[in-house]
């Protein structure tokens, strides 16, 4: 919110600069984004008056104007504005002037006619187009008739002010107003303040209750008041009001609408105005109906549902309650009778509706943060009185009360000892009491005890800690004593789980994969892909976008998105891994999903760089399986890893996918992404793995220890066999290892053959067996005995034919 420095000074005596004031606010209350000085960088922009005007001889839209700028002779300026008129005071940028965007105005000829400056619109001297009033949007701006010719225009347009842009936190809704900011500054600087709350001084014979009735749902509108003002004259607001609105970033519309916005800036209480003659029947505050539609003031049609809240008449919704009014009941120049609305809507319902429809307004911002429930009558009375004065309206003699929220003040007991203990100060009870009173709190003191009553405007204060924070910020954070905490020093380190996670990343990077981080939020379809267990979805109530609606239940789909991103940019060879959490829910009743650590990888293309002596080698199942096996072996599962073919994953290739087991426990899968899925992601052939890292962490592991390299030689023997095609390599290796004796140290498959000279139902396998005695020289008799035992058991178990 942009706060006018000059407006603040009307209520409190400030003897510091705007920059110093902004720094004080940032140190004590809320963050300040910037201090804006609208006239900064502008020069030689003065009040002028068009005294003569002729059409340009060589143009159908340019005018040659003689402009009196308070000098001896008028200045000739060529102007193309359609609304230029003789006798009007205008904004004149003289030769050498600097206007918006640091543009310099020079003398020049326009189609042969000398022009010694420029007549300016508001946006040409720095105002954003979206705050320029509609009547001045396509032309130059007319200054007040009593403006002194030759004076700088800044004081007439409020550009001699300084605007402090506050970034108000959600708990400090009271700072979203001039009055709230003044109260805080009065406490910080210990200065008095004085407000000018206008009260209705004249009323008509008509009553609000005779002209309209209301039906209010107290669950939606905690307080709801209406006031009718008859026979208004809708016209532009006075210049002083327009200045305050556009300096705050609000576009002036007309005097009635501007009154509601001005009141919001001044008091922090949003208001709305309806054209009474456009309403049909009574006003009702209710939940919207599914499919109900409303055209808002910005001329957008919004479709509502039963979770939205609306203000309606007999024909339907006339406003999105607390967010934005409807176009059909809006104030226009033809409006004669006005209904002012001053209400407090449920902040949670307002926020949900604003976020769902992506309509964030100044009103919704204030309702979301909370407004003073006890200030509505003053705000409504002030707005009605302004409508009487600047719109010549007749204020009805009563206020229609649809609902009224009687807020209870928060009462907190605290001691000075407690405050000093927390802050490390030695403030007296009088000092603390003075701070509370400066904040407008009521205080009753008994010995060291204080009973503090908090005004309803401070909805952020509920407990002792809140009071202690108030004392700290008003006393001054810089004044608090600085001490180092007394504590014992401990040596930091990683626990077993953290160490394994970190080691996992280093291992996979060593294997050639690059660390990737994907969004934990994805689409519903992608969340359900590559699932290792059954789970219900965890959907967001208010997602940021349609691509981030559901918590992921796998890591692979995110990696495939990353591969697609790279390959779309001609990076064909991609090898990635990700360590993160997936989110499982056993059923819909589970509120918070279980968070499970996973680690996954995806490889597409080749992992080796092509060179003159090394051709490209595309990744295959065995390469990624080898990465998984090496990773699991290195972290402590050597010799305990098994694989089982699985064709049940819909997203995986049915003939190139296997489940991974450790100690017989299922830990994940490895294989090729199904070609149809790869086509959906627009990627080339890709191989992936996904492992339940939490299960891997929990499983017992072998402790790694150093072994001396044996000084005794090893002996290698080969064995080849014909065997049935359905026999798996793991089964054969298990028998060889089991029957190979104590000296068998390694088994490798070095040949697989199917084809000529081999029956159709058979395959030929050849293994290399390595034997070594680490403590003595191995003799052939021991190796021969072991080989015979292996051969005998293979023939017994699988009916193999040794070749």
Describe the secondary-structure layout:
Elements lengths: L1 E3 H5 L8 H11 L2 E6 L6 E13 L7 E6 L6 E5 L9 E10 L9 E3 L2 E3 L1 E3 L34 H4 L5 E5 L10 H12 L18 H4 L2 E3 L4 E10 L8 H9 L7 H13 L3 E5 L7 E5 L5 E3 L5 E3 L5 E5 L2 E5 L3 E2 L12 E8 L1 H10 L5 H8 L6 H15 L3 E2 L4 E4 L6 E6 H8 L5 H10 L3 E5 L2 E6 L9 H12 L20 H15 L3 E2 L5 E2 L1 H4 L22 E2 L4 H12 L6 E11 L9 E11 L16 H17 L3 E5 L6 E11 L2 E9 L1 H7 L4 E7 H6 L16 E10 L4 H11 L4 E10 L8 E10 L8 H19 L2 E2 L1
Parallel strand pairs: 11-14, 26-29
Antiparallel strand pairs: 1-10, 2-10, 3-4, 3-6, 4-5, 6-9, 7-8, 12-20, 12-21, 12-22, 13-20, 14-17, 15-16, 17-18, 18-19, 23-25, 24-25, 27-28, 29-30, 30-34, 31-32, 32-33, 33-34, 35-37, 35-38, 36-37
Helix pairs in contact: 6-7, 7-10, 8-9, 14-17, 20-21
Kindly report the spatial arrangement of strands forming the biggest sheet: 26-29-30-34-33-32-31
CATH topology of the largest domain: BirA Bifunctional Protein, domain 2
Number of helices: 21
Number of strands: 38
Q: At the fourth CATH level, what is the homologous superfamily of the largest domain?
A: Bira Bifunctional Protein, Domain 2
What kind of sheet is the major sheet? 7 strands, mixed
Q: From the 3D coordinates, which CATH architecture of the largest domain would you assign?
A: 2-Layer Sandwich
Residue ranges: pLDDT <50 for 5 or more in a row? none
Structural class: alpha+beta
What would you call the shape? Answer: elongated
- Kindly, what is the distance between the CA atoms of the first and last residues, rounded to a whole number of angstroms? 88 Å
- Sheet-strand content, in percent, reads 25-35%
Mean pLDDT: 93
- Kindly state the percentage of residues in helix: 25-40%
Catalytic activity: tRNA(Phe) + L-phenylalanine + ATP = L-phenylalanyl-tRNA(Phe) + AMP + diphosphate + H(+)
EC number: 6.1.1.20
Main location: cytoplasm
Protein name: Phenylalanine--tRNA ligase beta subunit
């Amino acid at each position: 919110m942009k706060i006018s420095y000059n407006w603040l000074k009307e209520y409190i005596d400030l003897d510091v600069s705007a920059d110093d004031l902004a720094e004080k606010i940032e140190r004590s209350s809320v963050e300040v984004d910037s201090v804006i000085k609208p006239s900064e960088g502008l020069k030689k922009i003065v009040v002028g008056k068009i005294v003569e005007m002729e059409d340009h001889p060589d143009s159908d839209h340019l005018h040659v104007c003689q402009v009196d700028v308070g000098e001896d002779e008028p200045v000739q300026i060529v102007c193309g504005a359609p609304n230029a008129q003789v006798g009007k005071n205008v904004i004149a940028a003289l030769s050498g002037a600097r206007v918006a965007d640091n543009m310099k105005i020079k003398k020049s000829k326009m189609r042969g006619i000398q022009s010694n400056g420029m007549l300016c619109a508001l946006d040409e001297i720095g105002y954003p187009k979206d705050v320029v009033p509609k009547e001045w949007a396509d032309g130059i701006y007319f200054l007040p008739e009593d403006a002194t010719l030759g004076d700088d225009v800044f004081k007439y347009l409020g550009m001699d002010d300084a605007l402090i842009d506050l970034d108000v936190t959600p708990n400090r809704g009271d700072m979203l107003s001039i009055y709230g900011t003044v109260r805080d500054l009065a406490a910080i600087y210990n200065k008095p303040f004085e407000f000018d709350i206008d009260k209705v001084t004249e009323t008509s014979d008509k009553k609000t209750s005779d002209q309209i009735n209301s039906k209010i749902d107290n669950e939606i509108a905690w307080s709801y008041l209406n006031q009718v003002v008859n026979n208004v004259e809708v016209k532009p607001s006075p210049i002083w009001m327009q200045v305050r609105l556009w300096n705050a970033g609000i576009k002036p519309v007309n005097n009635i609408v501007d009154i509601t916005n001005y009141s919001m800036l001044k008091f922090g209480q949003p208001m709305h105005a309806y054209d009474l003659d456009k309403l049909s029947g009574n006003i009702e505050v209710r939940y919207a109906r599914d499919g109900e539609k409303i055209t808002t003031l910005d001329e957008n049609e919004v479709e509502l549902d039963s979770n939205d809240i609306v203000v309606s008449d007999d024909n339907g919704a006339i406003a999105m309650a607390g967010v934005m009014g409807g176009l059909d009941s809006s104030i226009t120049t033809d409006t004669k009778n006005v209904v002012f609305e001053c209400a407090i809507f449920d902040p949670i319902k307002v926020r949900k509706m604003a976020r769902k429809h992506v309509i964030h307004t100044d009103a919704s911002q204030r309702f979301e943060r909370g407004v003073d429930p006890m200030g509505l009558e003053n705000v409504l009375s002030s707005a009605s009185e302004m409508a009487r004065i600047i719109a010549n309206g007749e204020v009805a003699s009563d206020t229609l009360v649809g609902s009224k929220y009687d807020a209870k003040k928060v009462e907190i007991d605290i001691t000075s000892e407690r405050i000093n203990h927390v802050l490390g100060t030695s403030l007296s009870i009088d000092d603390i009491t003075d701070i509370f009173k400066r904040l407008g709190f009521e205080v009753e003191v008994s010995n060291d005890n204080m009973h503090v009553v908090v005004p309803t405007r401070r909805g952020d204060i509920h407990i002792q800690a809140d009071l202690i924070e108030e004392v700290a910020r008003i006393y001054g954070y810089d004044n608090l004593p600085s001490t180092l905490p007394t504590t014992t020093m401990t040596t930091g380190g990683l626990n077993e789980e953290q160490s394994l996670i970190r080691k996992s990343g280093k291992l996979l990077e060593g294997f050639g994969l690059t660390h990737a981080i994907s969004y934990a939020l994805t689409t519903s379809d992608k969340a359900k892909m590559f699932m290792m267990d059954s789970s219900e979805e965890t959907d967001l109530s208010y997602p940021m976008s349609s691509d981030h609606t559901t918590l992921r239940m796998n890591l692979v789909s995110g990696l495939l998105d990353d591969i697609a991103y790279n390959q779309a940019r001609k990076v064909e060879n991609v090898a990635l891994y990700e360590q993160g959490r997936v989110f499982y829910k056993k059923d819909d009743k589970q509120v918070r999903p279980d968070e499970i650590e996973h680690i996954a990888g995806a490889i597409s293309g080749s992992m080796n760089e092509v060179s003159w002596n090394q051709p490209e080698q595309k990744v295959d199942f065995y390469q990624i399986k080898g990465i998984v096996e090496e990773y699991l072996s290195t972290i402590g599962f050597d010799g305990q890893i098994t694989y089982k073919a699985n064709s049940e994953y819909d997203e995986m290739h049915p003939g190139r996918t296997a489940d991974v087991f450790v100690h017989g426990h299922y830990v994940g899968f490895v294989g090729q992404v199904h070609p149809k899925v790869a086509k959906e992601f627009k990627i080339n052939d890709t191989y992936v793995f996904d492992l339940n890292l939490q299960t891997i962490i929990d499983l017992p592991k072998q402790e790694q220890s150093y072994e001396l390299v044996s000084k005794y030689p090893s002996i290698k023997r080969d064995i080849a066999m014909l065997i049935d095609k359905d026999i798996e390599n793991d089964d054969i290796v298990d028998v060889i290892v089991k029957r190979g004796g104590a000296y068998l140290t390694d088994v490798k498959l070095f040949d697989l053959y199917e084809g000529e000279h081999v029956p159709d139902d058979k395959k030929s396998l050849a293994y290399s067996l390595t034997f070594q005695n680490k403590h003595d020289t191995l003799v052939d008799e021991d190796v021969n005995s072991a080989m015979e035992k292996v051969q005998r058991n293979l023939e017994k178990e699988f009916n193999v034919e040794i070749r």
